Amino acid sequence: MPELPEVQTVVNYLAPEVQGKIINSIDSPNNYLKVFGNGNLSFVKSAIQGKRIVRLGRRGKYIIIHLNKGHLIFHLRMTGKLLLQGLQKKFDKHLSFRIDFNDNSNLYFYDTRKFGRIYFSKTLNWLEQKLGIEPLSMEFNLLWLTQSLGQRKRMMKPLLFDQSFIAGLGNIYIDEILWKSNIHPLSLSNKIPEQIIPDLYKCIRSILKNAILFNGTTFINFSFGENQMGEFGEQLNVFGKQGRPCPDCGEEIKKIRVAQRGTHMCNRCQILYM
After folding, report:
1. Where are the alpha helices (DSSP H) in the chain?
2. CB 136 within 8 A of CB 191
3. Which of 3, 99, 181, 222 has the highest Cβ tally under 10 A?
4. Of the residues 130, 156, 179, which one is the last residue of a structural domain?
5. Is there a contact between 143 and 149 (Cβ–Cβ < 8 Å)?
6. Which residue is catalytic, options 2, 5, 135, 185?
7. Are the CB atoms for 245 and 38 separated by under 8 Å?
8. Is 117 a catalytic residue?
9. Is residue 272 part of a domain?
10. C-alpha of 137 from chain center
Protein backbone atom coordinates (compact mmCIF):
# COMPACT_ATOMS: atom_id res chain seq x y z
CA MET A 1 0.00 0.00 0.00
CA PRO A 2 1.33 3.48 -0.82
CA GLU A 3 2.57 5.22 2.31
CA LEU A 4 3.04 8.89 3.12
CA PRO A 5 5.92 9.54 0.65
CA GLU A 6 4.14 7.80 -2.24
CA VAL A 7 0.86 9.61 -1.58
CA GLN A 8 2.69 12.94 -1.33
CA THR A 9 4.41 12.14 -4.63
CA VAL A 10 1.03 11.69 -6.32
CA VAL A 11 -0.19 14.98 -4.83
CA ASN A 12 2.95 16.77 -6.06
CA TYR A 13 2.42 15.32 -9.55
CA LEU A 14 -1.28 16.23 -9.80
CA ALA A 15 -1.49 19.57 -8.00
CA PRO A 16 -0.06 21.92 -10.65
CA GLU A 17 -2.13 20.24 -13.36
CA VAL A 18 -5.59 20.26 -11.77
CA GLN A 19 -5.68 23.16 -9.32
CA GLY A 20 -8.07 25.85 -10.52
CA LYS A 21 -10.01 23.57 -12.86
CA ILE A 22 -13.80 23.29 -12.80
CA ILE A 23 -15.50 19.90 -12.72
CA ASN A 24 -17.98 19.49 -15.58
CA SER A 25 -19.05 15.94 -14.91
CA ILE A 26 -17.99 12.60 -13.45
CA ASP A 27 -18.52 8.96 -14.38
CA SER A 28 -17.73 5.40 -13.22
CA PRO A 29 -16.88 3.67 -16.54
CA ASN A 30 -16.57 0.17 -15.07
CA ASN A 31 -19.68 0.74 -12.95
CA TYR A 32 -17.87 -0.42 -9.82
CA LEU A 33 -20.04 1.48 -7.38
CA LYS A 34 -18.35 0.13 -4.26
CA VAL A 35 -15.57 2.60 -5.03
CA PHE A 36 -17.71 5.23 -3.29
CA GLY A 37 -17.02 5.00 0.42
CA ASN A 38 -20.04 7.13 1.21
CA GLY A 39 -23.00 7.75 -1.05
CA ASN A 40 -23.06 6.74 -4.71
CA LEU A 41 -22.29 8.11 -8.16
CA SER A 42 -25.33 10.39 -8.30
CA PHE A 43 -24.62 11.72 -4.80
CA VAL A 44 -21.00 12.55 -5.64
CA LYS A 45 -22.01 14.02 -9.02
CA SER A 46 -24.56 16.37 -7.46
CA ALA A 47 -22.03 17.36 -4.78
CA ILE A 48 -19.05 18.22 -6.99
CA GLN A 49 -20.43 19.10 -10.44
CA GLY A 50 -19.57 22.70 -11.26
CA LYS A 51 -17.17 22.99 -8.32
CA ARG A 52 -13.65 24.39 -8.68
CA ILE A 53 -10.55 22.66 -7.38
CA VAL A 54 -8.90 25.07 -4.96
CA ARG A 55 -5.90 22.93 -4.02
CA LEU A 56 -4.69 19.38 -3.45
CA GLY A 57 -3.44 18.09 -0.13
CA ARG A 58 -2.67 14.97 1.83
CA ARG A 59 -3.71 13.69 5.24
CA GLY A 60 -2.01 10.47 6.24
CA LYS A 61 -2.45 8.14 3.26
CA TYR A 62 -5.47 10.07 1.92
CA ILE A 63 -5.37 12.43 -1.07
CA ILE A 64 -7.68 15.39 -0.58
CA ILE A 65 -9.02 17.51 -3.43
CA HIS A 66 -10.19 20.68 -1.72
CA LEU A 67 -13.10 22.20 -3.67
CA ASN A 68 -14.56 25.66 -3.32
CA LYS A 69 -17.30 23.84 -1.43
CA GLY A 70 -16.50 20.48 0.12
CA HIS A 71 -13.75 17.91 -0.33
CA LEU A 72 -13.22 14.93 -2.64
CA ILE A 73 -11.05 12.35 -0.89
CA PHE A 74 -9.19 9.35 -2.35
CA HIS A 75 -7.59 6.40 -0.61
CA LEU A 76 -5.45 4.48 -3.11
CA ARG A 77 -5.16 1.32 -0.99
CA MET A 78 -3.15 -1.38 -2.81
CA THR A 79 -3.36 -0.58 -6.54
CA GLY A 80 -5.25 2.70 -6.97
CA LYS A 81 -3.73 5.21 -9.41
CA LEU A 82 -4.75 8.78 -10.20
CA LEU A 83 -3.67 9.69 -13.72
CA LEU A 84 -4.00 12.67 -16.03
CA GLN A 85 -3.93 10.51 -19.17
CA GLY A 86 -6.28 7.61 -19.83
CA LEU A 87 -4.86 4.14 -20.47
CA GLN A 88 -5.68 1.88 -23.41
CA LYS A 89 -9.29 0.80 -23.85
CA LYS A 90 -8.53 -2.69 -22.55
CA PHE A 91 -7.89 -1.17 -19.09
CA ASP A 92 -11.37 0.38 -18.86
CA LYS A 93 -12.45 -2.54 -16.66
CA HIS A 94 -10.16 -1.04 -14.01
CA LEU A 95 -11.36 2.56 -14.52
CA SER A 96 -13.57 3.14 -11.49
CA PHE A 97 -13.85 6.92 -11.68
CA ARG A 98 -13.28 9.74 -14.16
CA ILE A 99 -13.56 13.51 -13.78
CA ASP A 100 -14.20 15.63 -16.87
CA PHE A 101 -12.99 19.21 -16.52
CA ASN A 102 -14.24 22.36 -18.23
CA ASP A 103 -11.12 22.57 -20.42
CA ASN A 104 -11.72 19.07 -21.86
CA SER A 105 -8.97 17.51 -19.73
CA ASN A 106 -9.61 14.61 -17.37
CA LEU A 107 -8.56 12.91 -14.15
CA TYR A 108 -8.72 9.11 -14.08
CA PHE A 109 -8.84 6.70 -11.14
CA TYR A 110 -7.74 3.19 -12.10
CA ASP A 111 -7.73 0.39 -9.55
CA THR A 112 -6.88 -3.18 -10.56
CA ARG A 113 -7.79 -4.83 -7.26
CA LYS A 114 -10.64 -2.42 -6.50
CA PHE A 115 -9.73 -1.77 -2.86
CA GLY A 116 -9.43 2.01 -3.33
CA ARG A 117 -12.17 4.31 -2.12
CA ILE A 118 -13.54 7.76 -2.91
CA TYR A 119 -15.40 9.97 -0.47
CA PHE A 120 -17.15 13.33 -0.69
CA SER A 121 -17.44 15.29 2.52
CA LYS A 122 -18.52 18.82 3.35
CA THR A 123 -15.96 18.93 6.17
CA LEU A 124 -12.87 16.96 7.17
CA ASN A 125 -13.94 16.48 10.78
CA TRP A 126 -14.46 12.71 10.41
CA LEU A 127 -10.99 12.29 8.91
CA GLU A 128 -9.34 14.38 11.61
CA GLN A 129 -11.05 12.29 14.29
CA LYS A 130 -9.78 9.12 12.62
CA LEU A 131 -6.15 10.05 12.02
CA GLY A 132 -3.27 10.82 14.33
CA ILE A 133 -0.58 13.45 14.10
CA GLU A 134 1.23 14.22 10.84
CA PRO A 135 4.90 13.23 11.25
CA LEU A 136 6.15 16.12 9.09
CA SER A 137 4.03 18.75 10.81
CA MET A 138 5.16 21.38 13.31
CA GLU A 139 2.96 19.71 15.95
CA PHE A 140 5.02 16.53 15.71
CA ASN A 141 7.96 17.40 17.93
CA LEU A 142 10.31 15.63 20.33
CA LEU A 143 8.22 16.47 23.39
CA TRP A 144 5.05 15.05 21.81
CA LEU A 145 6.82 11.83 20.81
CA THR A 146 8.48 11.37 24.20
CA GLN A 147 5.23 11.85 26.10
CA SER A 148 3.16 9.77 23.68
CA LEU A 149 5.50 6.78 23.82
CA GLY A 150 5.65 6.93 27.60
CA GLN A 151 1.87 6.98 27.92
CA ARG A 152 1.46 3.76 25.93
CA LYS A 153 2.55 0.18 26.52
CA ARG A 154 2.54 -1.19 23.00
CA MET A 155 5.01 -2.92 20.70
CA MET A 156 6.75 -0.36 18.55
CA LYS A 157 5.96 -1.81 15.13
CA PRO A 158 2.17 -2.04 15.64
CA LEU A 159 2.11 1.33 17.39
CA LEU A 160 3.84 3.13 14.52
CA PHE A 161 1.49 1.34 12.15
CA ASP A 162 -1.55 2.67 14.00
CA GLN A 163 -2.92 5.50 11.83
CA SER A 164 -4.69 7.02 14.83
CA PHE A 165 -1.27 7.47 16.49
CA ILE A 166 0.90 8.75 13.64
CA ALA A 167 -0.72 9.08 10.23
CA GLY A 168 0.98 7.89 7.06
CA LEU A 169 3.53 5.31 8.18
CA GLY A 170 3.49 1.76 6.78
CA ASN A 171 5.60 -1.36 6.51
CA ILE A 172 8.46 0.00 4.40
CA TYR A 173 9.25 3.13 6.37
CA ILE A 174 8.58 1.68 9.83
CA ASP A 175 11.16 -1.06 9.18
CA GLU A 176 13.66 1.52 7.94
CA ILE A 177 12.98 3.92 10.83
CA LEU A 178 13.34 1.26 13.54
CA TRP A 179 16.54 -0.09 12.00
CA LYS A 180 18.08 3.36 11.66
CA SER A 181 17.21 4.22 15.28
CA ASN A 182 18.43 0.80 16.56
CA ILE A 183 15.08 -0.16 18.09
CA HIS A 184 13.80 -3.74 17.91
CA PRO A 185 10.24 -3.82 16.47
CA LEU A 186 9.01 -5.89 19.45
CA SER A 187 10.19 -3.25 21.95
CA LEU A 188 7.57 -1.75 24.23
CA SER A 189 6.97 1.94 23.64
CA ASN A 190 7.05 2.90 27.34
CA LYS A 191 10.38 1.12 27.80
CA ILE A 192 12.28 3.09 25.14
CA PRO A 193 15.02 5.04 27.00
CA GLU A 194 14.43 8.76 26.86
CA GLN A 195 17.94 9.36 25.45
CA ILE A 196 17.05 7.13 22.46
CA ILE A 197 13.89 9.01 21.47
CA PRO A 198 15.65 12.01 19.83
CA ASP A 199 17.26 9.60 17.34
CA LEU A 200 13.88 8.00 16.63
CA TYR A 201 12.32 11.43 16.10
CA LYS A 202 15.06 12.50 13.69
CA CYS A 203 14.86 9.20 11.79
CA ILE A 204 11.10 9.48 11.28
CA ARG A 205 11.37 12.94 9.78
CA SER A 206 14.57 12.48 7.78
CA ILE A 207 13.59 9.14 6.20
CA LEU A 208 10.16 10.42 5.17
CA LYS A 209 11.58 13.66 3.75
CA ASN A 210 14.26 11.81 1.80
CA ALA A 211 11.71 9.33 0.46
CA ILE A 212 9.59 12.22 -0.85
CA LEU A 213 12.66 13.69 -2.58
CA PHE A 214 13.09 10.35 -4.37
CA ASN A 215 9.36 10.16 -5.26
CA GLY A 216 8.71 7.33 -2.84
CA THR A 217 9.41 3.62 -3.18
CA THR A 218 8.20 1.40 -5.98
CA PHE A 219 7.72 -2.04 -4.47
CA ILE A 220 5.48 -4.23 -6.67
CA ASN A 221 2.69 -1.78 -7.54
CA PHE A 222 3.44 1.90 -6.99
CA SER A 223 3.89 4.24 -9.94
CA PHE A 224 2.73 7.75 -10.75
CA GLY A 225 2.30 9.94 -13.81
CA GLU A 226 3.38 8.31 -17.05
CA ASN A 227 4.35 5.06 -15.33
CA GLN A 228 7.11 6.81 -13.38
CA MET A 229 8.64 4.81 -10.54
CA GLY A 230 9.69 5.89 -7.07
CA GLU A 231 13.47 5.74 -6.64
CA PHE A 232 13.85 5.48 -2.87
CA GLY A 233 14.12 1.71 -3.14
CA GLU A 234 17.83 2.15 -3.86
CA GLN A 235 18.18 3.84 -0.44
CA LEU A 236 16.50 1.07 1.57
CA ASN A 237 18.69 -0.63 4.16
CA VAL A 238 16.57 -3.50 5.49
CA PHE A 239 13.14 -3.63 3.88
CA GLY A 240 13.07 -6.51 1.41
CA LYS A 241 16.73 -7.28 2.20
CA GLN A 242 16.26 -10.50 4.20
CA GLY A 243 19.26 -12.81 3.89
CA ARG A 244 21.62 -9.97 3.02
CA PRO A 245 24.20 -8.47 5.39
CA CYS A 246 23.21 -5.53 7.56
CA PRO A 247 24.83 -2.37 6.14
CA ASP A 248 26.05 -1.41 9.63
CA CYS A 249 27.30 -4.64 11.23
CA GLY A 250 27.25 -7.38 8.59
CA GLU A 251 24.80 -9.58 10.51
CA GLU A 252 22.23 -11.29 8.29
CA ILE A 253 19.00 -9.31 8.00
CA LYS A 254 16.03 -11.34 9.22
CA LYS A 255 12.39 -11.28 8.23
CA ILE A 256 10.05 -12.00 11.12
CA ARG A 257 6.32 -11.64 11.74
CA VAL A 258 5.18 -8.82 13.99
CA ALA A 259 1.44 -8.30 14.40
CA GLN A 260 0.89 -10.46 11.29
CA ARG A 261 3.17 -8.30 9.15
CA GLY A 262 6.47 -9.19 7.56
CA THR A 263 9.16 -7.21 9.38
CA HIS A 264 12.79 -6.76 8.34
CA MET A 265 15.41 -6.21 11.02
CA CYS A 266 18.93 -6.79 12.31
CA ASN A 267 19.14 -8.74 15.58
CA ARG A 268 22.54 -7.29 16.40
CA CYS A 269 21.87 -3.61 15.75
CA GLN A 270 18.30 -3.33 17.01
CA ILE A 271 17.93 -3.46 20.78
CA LEU A 272 14.92 -5.04 22.44
CA TYR A 273 13.49 -2.82 25.19
CA MET A 274 11.04 -4.70 27.45
Report:
1. 4-18, 41-48, 125-130, 142-150, 156-161, 171-180, 197-213
2. no
3. 222
4. 130
5. no
6. 2
7. no
8. no
9. no
10. 15
Tell whether 28 is covered by a domain: yes
State the total domains in the chain. 2
- Tens digit of each residue's pLDDT, the chain (274 residues): 899 999 999 999 999 999 999 999 999 999 999 999 998 999 999 999 999 999 999 999 999 999 999 999 999 999 999 999 988 888 889 999 999 999 999 999 999 999 999 999 999 999 999 999 999 999 999 999 999 999 999 999 999 999 999 999 999 999 999 999 999 999 999 999 999 999 999 999 999 999 999 999 998 778 888 788 999 999 999 999 999 999 999 999 999 999 999 999 999 999 999 9
* Residue 178 C-alpha from the chain's centroid: 18
User: Is 11 within a domain?
Assistant: yes
From the candidates 58, 61, 81, 117, give the one annotated as an active-site residue.
Answer: 61
Together in a domain, 187 and 261: yes
Q: At which of 104, 130, 156 does a domain end?
A: 130
3 is catalytic: yes
Closest CA to 110 of 11, 16, 223, 3: 223
Range of the structural domain that residue 97 is part of = 4-130
